[in-house]
Design goal:
heterodimer, A: 324 residues, alpha/beta, 2 domains, 5-stranded mixed β-sheet, 12 helices, B: alpha+beta, 4-stranded antiparallel β-sheet, 33% helix, 22% strand
Amino acid sequence: MQELINRAKELLADGTVARVLGWKAGDLPYNPEPAYFESPEELKDFVYNGFCGANLSKYMIEASRLEGKTMVCLKPCDTYSFNQLIKEHRVDREKAYIVGVGCKGKLDIERIRKQGIKGIESIKGAEITDDADTLTIQTIYGEKTCAYADAMLERCHVCKGKEHMIFDEQIGESKETKDAERFAEVERIEAMSPEEKFAYFQSELSKCIRCNACRNACPACSCRKCVFDSNKFDSSQKANVDSFEEKMFHIIRAFHVAGRCTDCGECSRVCPQGIPLHLFNRKFIKDIDELYGEYQAGADTDSTAPLTDYTFEDAEPSIVGKRG
Amino acid sequence: MYKIAKENLSALFQKIAETRELYLPVKTAGQTNFGAWNADAEVDLDTLKTVKSAKDAFFPQSESLYNVKKEGKKMSIEPETLKEQDFVVFGMRACDVKGMEVLDNVFLSDPVDTFYAARRDHGTIVAMACHEPEETCFCKVFGVDAASPASDVAVWTVGEELYWKAQTEKGEALTEAVKELLTEAELSGEAAVEAEKDSIHKIVEKLPYRNLSLEGWNGDALSEKFDSPIWEELYKPCLACGTCTFVCPTCQCYDIKDYTAGDTVSRYRCWDSCMYSDFTMMAHGNNRTSQMQRFRQRFMHKLVYYPANNNGMYSCVGCGRCVEKCPQALNIVKVIKAFQNQGGEK
């Protein structure tokens, strides 16, 4: 982390960048927040640890409009989102100085809480320099431990890899965290009967509180004004009624980001109700892979995406009937 | 004071449900929220904080106000009926009970919100003392006693027993209705409840936010706080989602919208969020045009405007749900601290 801070200071001092976009230490052991730093003094609050899960790519849409360059800290998975945003002309590459930061898997405080750990006072093992496999958590109710892997975000278990897809320089080591198959959960749901699938998604989606956190965190949801924020649209879009949540909002959103979603996992990370929203997107990714050949959105900035390209070999619409 | 063994709780819920609707923390798809009781529901009284507060039971996130039907050239309007059925909300916490006081000040003052008032009349609150408060809790800062909820019935968990104390007429009536399942608490039981309260108070004194200071947050500070340059820094990571407002037990803003389906129109109201771009949108446009202004509104409302209009009472109860749930780890505590630090550096 010190290396990152030192480099940020240098880049600010020599005028390469006007600001640094990273994370600021929180007031609890696990709640750093995304933050801009404009001076070496401000960098005293800079932090980069296991709880810096937020994908900062989307903030670069706004930062691209600011004067001067922004040094942005991107984890390997975040760089896919950044590339995709370049492809969609939503960020300005020239306005970003990308520091690819190492990643050893990001932690999910909800997973720690789910293990009955509460009254948290301090957490050891979450620093990027720690090579611990276990988190030691001091709580009001005594010391607890938790395996690092058991506290990781879902997306880290199916990590796309240690490589940064785009960067100006790299700082810090990354670690292999993949220990599960990316499409295993999708396959489990595919194997269900239509009634079981419906019941599964109904039970998950009926928890939705219409907070729009999934949409607002999503780097692929970059419309200036979302159709669901329109007031000229007499639907029930603002209500938390099952008919809308279960049958429209999340499904429409999944279709809209299909072929552009990099599977960064922010939707599921930010959901206050723990809905595994990434499963919709991952189903689309799996289908695209099967119908058009393997494709990873955000792996580059200039390839033609399968859903925006037409070839004679493309699947015919009748495939839908055949595949069910 | 009465008591009931934990193992008899399902019998108690069954008994309550015979004469009243019953809402309590229920776990569905891994998350605990207030929901209607039924024999198959997975009741979860161990989770300290439900994701959403119990606010829905009195002020639902979405509710229909009236329906309009068009038949030829005729139009008929069918208003929704007010709540007529008695109901019980079991398992609220002291902070959420205080949250009801915040909502009462808004909805029960002139003009009275009849939908809310009917639910308040028919609802009985059974609240539980917080056996193990968590690091995100700061109810003490707002004068809430986590050990003694100001509810119709207060409940303490001691070992395998629940101690039950009616504190209002409604509480007495509910106690009467379920009396066959309760037994009179012996003196040692009452002492155990006192010990539990002591234990809770001791834990509250260890919580990280116990000394959060609200000094300087009042109606008189309006211009000073409103014009502070700090907001420009604080709002930046905000995603403009509605999580903080929707998990909050005191946020009370709502929107009224129409759902149009051919020959029918359903007029409904639903919670609104000051974080949303169409919040308080009027015919002339929007009086808050930036996310900074919308972000500022939430905290100014809770810590300045509301106390200015309600004898100094804040519209935050320190439940800490926003602390737990904000996707980018922003929250009211960080806002209060940021102003405090700024004062210190001057």
